[in-house]
Specification:
340 residues, TIM Barrel, 12 helices
């Protein structure tokens, strides 16, 4: 049916730059993201969990671990609370993963609230338990991120680079460190922050895992800067599927990650609609990963918040499929521990 000139239907489009047909004829063309070449191997994945505080949280954690285990991730890491507040729970979770699953666990370890001897003792305990991968971090004091600055513990490792060097003296650990595409909030400058990352790599770190980010261009520019600085180890993008947008905005303000306006618009009006938020979260993170994948990135680290559903769905979109039992990950190679 034709619409007479001057009707409401015509008025609705008057605020736009021409009719849809005119925009189609004169506007830019956008090609779709390239499909993953089926001949190429799927990307490598890793997943991060946090230690549970009670039985209900422990049940949820282990449900997530079992759900993600068939994807055969490169490793799974377990966080370490501010000020070392979850040391025992982190150790218990990591050692249980090692004993009861086919996964390779990585334990977070920080410099705060402990002497070098105490940190070394924790590292040796991990080594004796068969844990060969450490995520070495400076860490935050018990009160959390302090905008006024950071004070090393007396007699402790001052910074992550010092911790990496200390771990290298203890054993042949696989050591991951943190990287910040948008700069650590306490860094003097972006250049100083990159210098600090280089010191951690030079001390013996084998990879860097980035703080989460939402602007893909920011991450790619950061990789360019790392390359220019002579950093050649893998820089693995940290991916955070967002389900609680307001919580992410609040946390991002403390850790220096920017949240783009388009993201706020996507989550607007979904405060009481968890299911739709999850679908939006999966779409946003999957597009982010596919853009990175199209630019040659072949490894991703997911901050799961102890939930498996979104990470599993995004992994599927990226081409990762459950491994058959015969393809289960082999145990880590035997390495020698340095003497005390």
């Amino acid at each position: 049916m034709q619409t007479p000139s001057g009707t409401a239907a015509e008025t609705q489009t008057s605020g736009r730059s021409g009719s849809p047909l005119a925009r189609w004829l004169t506007g830019p063309r956008f090609a779709r993201l390239p499909s993953r070449d089926a001949a190429l191997p799927p990307p490598l994945l890793s997943f991060e969990f946090f230690p549970p505080k009670n039985q209900a949280m422990e049940d949820a954690l282990w449900a997530a671990i079992r759900r993600l285990e068939p994807l055969a991730p490169r490793f799974v890491s377990v966080t370490y609370g501010a000020g070392g507040s979850t040391r025992e729970r982190t150790h218990a979770t990591v050692t249980r993963i090692r004993a009861e699953t086919s996964l390779t666990p990585a334990a977070h370890l920080t410099c705060v609230a402990a002497t070098r001897a105490e940190v070394d003792g924790v590292a040796r305990a991990y080594w004796e338990a068969g844990i060969r991968h450490i995520v070495a971090l400076r860490g935050d004091p018990p009160a959390g991120i302090d905008p006024s600055g950071y004070t090393p513990h007396p007699g402790g490792y001052a910074y992550a680079a010092d911790l990496v060097a200390g771990l290298r003296r203890i054993g042949d650990f696989d050591i991951s460190v943190a990287a910040y595409p948008e700069m650590h909030p306490q860094a003097a400058s972006a250049a100083a922050d990159l210098d600090n990352l280089k010191r951690k790599i030079d001390a013996g770190a084998t990879r860097a895992i980035t703080q989460y980010f939402f602007d893909t261009d920011t991450s790619l520019r950061f990789l360019d800067r790392c390359h220019a600085a002579g950093i050649t180890v893998p820089i693995v993008p940290g991916i955070l599927p967002v389900t609680n947008f307001q919580q992410v905005v609040k946390f991002s303000a403390m850790c220096g990650a920017s949240v783009p306006g388009w993201m706020a618009e996507l989550f607007q009006g979904l405060e009481d609609d968890l299911e739709t938020r999850r679908m939006v979260a999966a779409a946003v993170a999957a597009e982010q990963c596919r853009l990175l994948q199209a630019n040659g990135i072949d490894e991703f680290h997911f901050y799961t918040l102890n939930r498996a559903d979104l990470a599993y769905a995004i992994a599927h979109i990226l081409g990762v499929r459950p491994a058959r039992k015969a393809e289960a990950a082999a145990p880590p190679p035997v390495a020698k521990c340095a003497s005390a």
